[in-house]
Structure formats: C-alpha cells, structure tokens
Design a protein that fits this description.
The complex is a heterodimer of chains A (498) and B (322).
Chain A (H helix, E strand, L loop, with lengths): L6 H4 L2 H19 L5 H12 L4 H25 L9 H12 L3 H36 L2 H15 L7 H15 L2 E2 L6 E2 L12 H22 L14 H10 L1 H15 L5 H16 L11 H13 L6 H6 L5 H11 L9 H4 L1 H33 L3 H20 L2 H19 L4 H27 L3 H6 L2 H27 L3
Antiparallel strand pairs in A: 1-2
Chain B lengths: L1 H22 L8 E5 L6 H9 L13 E5 L6 H9 L7 E7 L1 H8 L9 E10 L1 E6 L7 H10 L5 E4 L5 H13 L4 E4 L3 H11 L4 E5 H9 L3 E7 L26 E8 L4 H15 L2 H9 L4 E4 L1 H19 L3
Parallel strand pairs in B: 1-2, 1-3, 6-7, 6-8
Antiparallel strand pairs in B: 3-10, 4-10, 4-11, 5-8, 5-9
Helix pairs in contact in B: 4-11
Classes of the chains: A mainly alpha (498), B alpha/beta (322).
Chain lengths: 498, 322
C-alpha cells in the first residue's frame, strides 16, 4: 500500500499541470491518424530534459495513457484506427456511428477504457512480481504460437466470408515480407528503392482504412447523395454508464485478455485488442451481432487496449526490458534522468516511480472526463459536409503518413495501398484481416526463425516447438479456435447463411 | 625572406579559407536533419538525441538538429538511403555505427561502403561484453569455453543481429577459443537479445556494455568479459577477453558518430568537423551521457578517418572465411 503515500506528489501544481497537459494533448494526438502513442511519447521526451524526473515521467505516462484511448475517436467517427491497438474498435465502433449512435459509441469506448485502464494500472501496482515472471515465460516458441493464434482470427474478421478474410490476411502476410529481412538481411520483393525499408505499419494502416473512405465520400459528395457524413443522436451519459456496467462479460474478458497478452514483450500491444475482441465474441450468445455496431465489441476492444498500458510497463520497470516500441521510448525517458529500471526500482526511486504510476491512475479518470466531453462535441463533426470531410481526412492521412519518418515514399505507399483496398472492399474484402496479416507476419516469422536457430543447436525443431505445457496449451487453443470457426461456418451454411 | 614567404603563405591560406568559407558562410541557415538507422528508443537513437541537444546554441551550430529514424535490417535501410537518396548539401547527416556498416558493406548486398560517407566526428564507444543470466553456472569465459568444447555447437548465445558489433565479437571469441557455438541474432536488436539471456531463451549473449551495465545493476545478468583492449571505467571489476586468454581485440567496439554523404561541399564538412566535436564536449551533454551509463569517446574527423580505415582492414580479414 506504499503507493498511497505518494498521491499528494501528483496533486502539486506542477505535477498536475503536466498530467492535464499530457492528457489533453494525448487525446488530440491519439485522435490524429498516424500519430501513434510511440511517436507522441518520443516527441515529448526532449521537453522532459529540464524537468524534475517525476514531472517528466508524469507527462510521458499521461501521454501514453491518453493517446491509446484517443485513437478510438478517429476509429469510431472516421473508421481510421489512430494506432494498431485501435483496429478492433473500428469493427463495431464505426458500425455503431454509421447507425447514428456515434456519441453512444464514444461514451462506451471511453468508459470501457477507464475500466480497463484502471484495472491494468492496479495489476501493475499489486501483482508486478508475478507479472514479471509471466512476461519471461514467453520465449520464441510461445510467442510464435501466440502469433499463430492471431492468424486464426483473420478469417472471421469483418469480411463477408471466411475465405475472403483468409485471402485478405494472406495479402497482408505477403506485404509484411517486403523489404530487407530483419535477421538475415536478404532482400525480398524490393522492386523499387522506396520499398527497401519494408511497408511501415502506420502508413499502411492509414491507407487501408482511410483512403477507401475518402474515395467513397468524394464519390457520394459528387452525386449529392446525403450530404451529412453521420447523423449523431443524443445519448445520455447515464444510459451509457449503465450499459457498460452491465456488460460484465466484455469488460472481464477484455481486461483479462488485454492485460495478459499486452504483457508479452514484443508481441502484445498490437494484437491484444483483436484477440480480446475475438474471445468476447466467441463467448457471447449474440455472436452474430458483432461487426454490426454491437456494444460488447467496442467495450471489449477498448477495455483490452487500455488494460494493456499498465502491465506493458512491467517488463520495462522490473527487468529493464522494453516490451513494446512505446516502452522502449519510455526507457529512454527514464535513463535520461539517471533512473535505471530493475527489480529494485520501487526501493531505489520510490519518489519518482510511485507518482508516475499514481498519475496514470488519475490520468485514466481525466482521460475519461475529457473523452466524454469530446463525445459531446462529436455532433459538430457530424455536420461537416461529406466532401469537406473527405478533404480533411485526406490531408490528415497524408500528414500522418509523412510524419512517421518524414518521407514522401510512405505517402505514396499509403495512397497505393488505400486505392487497392477501395477496389478490394467493393468485392467484400475488408481492411482489418489484411492489417492483421501485416502485423502478425513479422512476429510469427521472426520468432520462428529465432526458435529454429536455437532448436538446431539443441533438440531439433519438433521438440522445441511442440513440447512444454505452455506450447501445448497454445496449440490446443489454436486448434480449438479453428475447429470452432469451421463448425460455425458449416452451421451457417445449413441455416442458409453466406 | 623565409619570414616573408611564410607570411605570404599564411595570408594565402587565410584568403583561400575565406573564399571557401564564403560560399558556406551562412551555413547552417536552417535546421539540420540527423538520420538514425535504428528505431526510436534504441541506444543509438537515445545517445544521438542527447549529443545533439545543444546544437541550437550559438557556440555550437546555431541551428537545431532533428533526429529522423529510418530503422530496418540492422541499419542497412537507413544507410542505403543516406548513400543513395539523401541530398549532399550539409543539411542531411547520418549517425554511423562502426563496425556495423563497414561489416555489412564487406559482406555485400548494400549500396554503401566506407567510401560513400565523410565522417564528421565520433561521440561514443560502447564495447561488446559477454553476459549470462544471474543464475547461470558460468562464472568466467573459461567456464564458457570449457562447456562449449565439451558440447560443440550447442552453446546458444544471443546478439543484436548479423554483421553488427555483437556478431563480430561472437566470431572473434569463437575463433580465439577454437570452439563452435550457436550465435542467435535477435530480430528486436540489443534489447531483444538481452531479454533472451535474462529469460533463459539462450544460454548467454553478447551485448552493449551500457545496456549490460544497467542490467547488472538490476541484478538480472552477470558480465563475464569485455571485448576491448582495456577494462572499462563503468565496470573496473570485469576483465577483458585478453586477460582471460582469449585473443579478442577492440574490433567489435561500437563506435557511434556523425557523418555526411560523399559529395557534401568541403567547406561544410570543414565547418562541421570543427564545430561538432566541441558540441559533443559540452558539459551538459557529458552529464546526461554519464547518467545514462553511455561511455563517451570524442574523436575528430581525422581520427575517425584513420579508425574507419583500420576497421575495414580487420573486418575484411575476419569475414573473409564466411
């Protein structure tokens, strides 16, 4: 309970201003396509050079927390996930906004974020030693199977049929192999020098989600069909709170899966939301409603990606291992103030670490309050005519892609992928499985190659990947997950479905 | 007469100097970009941000330096870009890592070599160290070599990638000890390689001295040896490889510094070569680097040119058999 003594450090004028500043900017940056949490934190680090360590970290922590939640705004209103973590939010969030309930979707998303986020930070406070052990259990073989578990979701994500979902996933996996191979340095599918660095995930994400929208909006704008982008019905906050409070299954699965997977170094952050979404769907009696604007879909996805924030810091704080790109940037922020993370960090730097963690707890509340204010203002966004909105989104998409590494190449990649996606969407393919393939490809491949090399020096690939409790458990879940989708598909056919 | 000649010579050189500087007298008149070929948060990125933080001061360049990350394939993506696409106008610089980019160019398949770039100055030297998990049975390099001799090819040890400093050190250790071990390059670079050691995915690893220093302070690893000519001031208690009977020199030491693409005007190079080492020597920079456990080693352009040439020769010999 030591952390309780450090709450007053958060409520000093300086610390609290940093917290407010970080939260507000984080929400705005998070809602801007292309500005991922990693970049927001990296941009802020130079500003912390001259601050007190605790104040600097509070700013960084608040930014991390609120950029993750802010990504839901563009995911819901524009169907553009602010970062990979928000992909799952687009599935039901944007569908709900299309039905006129954008305000409700935003309210649900921020309330679920609050729940997941607070639960995640509490896990960080109370169970760090256990979580630290869990993070190290996942070696190359276990991480490989986690990625394969992600692959099994691909087929069932947002497309009109499993086959189309799998095809889109394959395209994504292929795109992920473009560029120099990360381990061996061999060149693959580099037809032009601008592809040498591979396809960066952020421009791809923006292109695949935003550009088909932009093209469709321009097309409709020209024909003067419904000039309003979205209708936004009023939705009382009371109702949203009751709705979230009663979705215990989505909150529970979202938070549990999000925090457990978010913890695994190098794997978690990007797929925690999607795996949680899929598991919630599997356990829901209203499975078929997912993807059509079902509240459980939004709640599970947002609870999961915010629940990840706290636990994802465990490997960083206790083992000095940054488990995600954002954590790597935060490590820089810690070291620059002479703070070396490790098992004794809570003993050696309590006056810095506890205010930092406490501020994330309070930051969750501030994030939710400001987020709900944004939800209230969303109706104004809805009044923007379609053609104007298309231009704004296109400008943001170009800006967001360019800003990742100040490169026009990324902008062209974004536009080309997006235009291709527009045509694919017309044939019933969807962007989510494609992006999932793009994310999972390198995780699966990298861990397989590393595992295979270790296995070659030890007992051989068969033993390395197919023995051990955790490996076998993961394999069982993978097989079960595939069998379940096949069974569902067959059942749907009998009923006369797709 | 001699005096007169000398005076004339000095006057001429000064005039020439002025004439040359004239074209670049205003340089830099806008912010300069520094390309780092590793991701944000990595050791190179982190140090580059610190050593350039005073660039905007009047006694440095008078213009800020912005860091741009172009990560991928152990740095190949960024250096390819710098060699083939970046403008050689003095407003695009790159961070170099020795021996990485020279080793990659010796191995082939990239668009650059040491001749593609002009060094400006060196800011740091991070030796490779040999680490094992805190609970490992190995307590010295002798233990490691004995085990590796008894189990040829079975001792797994991680490093940041292929043809980077860690890999060079690994090759040198194997050659010096006359054993075969299994080097496992990590996809996530140095931090991933360190995780593999701590988690027990591999039996040992080669890593950066600065990162190992922090990991040891955290109590998660033991450091068995430094691949350098002398012990390091950050860890006086850790013996060098040579002290432990392994003939491993400093060829794997990770030198970090700033360079520009070939073709950058000589006046600009001279101006940078004069100003940048002084900028690195700033006391605020030194303080931040020390706090972060990052060893500094400032070298001028001429010293770096000599170091590059020496490394290229060593690496050609070492990698010839691969």
């Amino acid at each position: 309970m030591e952390f309780l003594y450090y709450f007053d450090e958060v409520f000093t004028l300086w610390a609290f201003s940093m917290l407010l500043l970080g939260t507000v900017f984080g929400l705005i940056l998070g809602a801007t396509p292309g500005l991922s949490p990693t970049m927001a934190v990296a941009l802020a680090i130079p500003f912390t050079f001259k601050m007190e360590p605790a104040h600097g970290l509070i700013l960084l922590g608040a930014l991390y927390t609120s950029t993750v939640a802010g990504g839901a705004v563009s995911a819901i209103l524009l169907k553009i996930p602010g970062a990979p973590a928000n992909i799952a939010t687009t599935l039901d969030g944007h569908a709900m906004a299309k039905n006129g309930d954008g305000k409700r979707a935003l309210q649900l998303s921020f309330l679920a974020s609050l729940f997941g986020g607070v639960a995640g930070v509490l896990l960080l406070i109370f169970t760090t030693p256990i979580l630290a052990k869990w993070a190290l259990v996942f070696g190359p073989s276990e991480s490989f199977w986690i990625a394969i578990l992600g692959v099994t979701i691909i087929g069932t994500l947002g497309s009109t049929s499993v086959i189309k979902g799998l095809l889109a996933g394959c395209i994504g996996l292929w795109i992920s192999t473009i560029g120099f191979d990360d381990i061996l340095g061999t060149q693959r599918f580099i037809f032009h020098s601008s592809l040498a660095g591979g396809i960066n995930i952020i421009p791809a994400l923006i292109g695949l989600f935003a550009i088909p929208q932009v093209i469709a909006m321009f097309a409709k704008g020209r024909s003067h069909e419904d000039m309003e982008v979205l209708e936004i019905k009023p939705h009382p906050l009371r109702k949203a709170i009751r709705e979230v409070a009663s979705s215990r299954r989505a909150l529970g699965i979202g938070t549990a899966v999000g925090s457990m997977i978010g913890l695994i170094p190098g794997v978690g952050g990007q797929i925690a939301g999607l795996v949680a979404y899929d598991q919630t769907r599997n356990f829901s009696p209203e499975r078929t409603k997912f993807g059509t604007g079902h509240p459980e879909g939004i709640i599970a996805a947002e609870a999961a990606n915010n629940a990840m924030v706290g636990p994802s810091l465990v490997p960083l704080l206790t083992l000095s291992i940054p488990g995600s790109p954002t954590a790597a940037v935060l490590l820089g922020g810690l070291i620059i103030h002479g703070i070396f993370p490790g098992p004794n960090i809570f003993r050696d730097y309590p006056q810095v670490v506890w205010p930092f963690i406490n501020s994330m707890l309070i930051g969750q509340v501030l994030m939710c309050v400001f987020g709900l204010m944004i939800a209230g203002a969303a109706a104004h966004v809805a009044r923007v005519p379609r053609s104007v909105m298309a231009a704004v989104v296109l400008a943001l998409a170009v800006f967001g892609s360019y800003s990742v590494q100040l490169s026009m190449d990324d902008v062209f990649v974004m536009l080309i992928l997006g235009t291709g996606m527009y045509f694919l969407e017309r044939y019933g393919y969807s962007a989510a499985p494609l992006v999932l393939g793009l994310i999972l490809g390198p995780i699966a491949e990298g861990n397989f190659v590393e595992g295979a090399m270790i296995a070659a020096a030890q007992n051989g690939i068969g033993t390395y990947f197919f023995t051990g409790t955790l490996n076998l458990t993961m394999i069982a879940i993978v097989v079960g997950s595939i069998a379940y989708s096949v069974w569902l598909e067959l059942k749907n056919r009998q009923v006369g479905g797709v | 007469m001699k005096k007169l000649l000398a005076g004339a010579a000095i006057a001429l050189t000064t005039l020439a100097g002025i004439a040359q500087a004239d074209g670049h007298a205003n340089y830099p008149d806008r912010p300069i970009m520094l390309m780092v070929s590793y991701g944000a948060g990595g050791a190179t990125d982190f140090q580059a941000r610190i050593v350039t933080m005073t660039a905007g001061n009047d006694d440095a360049l008078g213009m800020p330096i912005a860091i741009i990350n172009k990560p991928g394939a152990g740095g190949r993506v960024g250096w390819n870009w710098l060699a083939s696409q970046a403008e050689a106008d003095g407003y695009t610089m790159g961070a170099y890592n020795i021996p990485h980019f020279i080793a990659q160019s010796v191995k082939g398949g990239v668009d650059y070599s040491a001749a593609s770039f002009e060094p400006i100055a060196n800011w740091g030297a991070d030796p490779a160290v040999f680490v094992v998990a805190a609970d490992s049975e190995f307590n010295s390099m002798a233990d490691v070599v004995t085990w590796a001799k008894a189990n040829p090819g079975k001792l797994t040890f991680s490093g940041a990638g292929l043809f980077v400093g860690h890999h060079i050190a690994a090759l040198q250790i194997e050659k010096a000890a006359g054993v075969k071990m299994a080097y496992i390059p990590n996809k996530s670079g140095g931090s991933g390689a360190m995780k593999a050691v701590i988690a027990g995915d591999v039996m040992a690893g080669v890593n950066n001295l600065s990162d190992a220093f922090r990991a040891r302070a955290a109590g998660t690893v033991k450091i068995l040896g430094v691949a350098d000519l002398e012990r390091n001031s950050f860890m006086e208690d850790v013996p060098t490889m040579m002290e432990q009977g392994l003939n491993v020199d400093n060829a794997s030491v990770n030198f970090r510094g700033v360079m520009v693409p070939k073709g950058t005007p000589q006046g600009v190079i001279d101006k940078l070569a004069a100003a940048v080492p002084a900028m690195f020597a700033n006391s605020r920079v030194a303080g931040k680097m020390k706090a972060g456990g990052s060893p500094m080693h400032i070298m001028t352009r001429d010293e770096v040119l000599a170091m590059w040439a020496a490394r290229e020769k060593t690496l050609k010999d070492l990698l010839a058999g691969l």
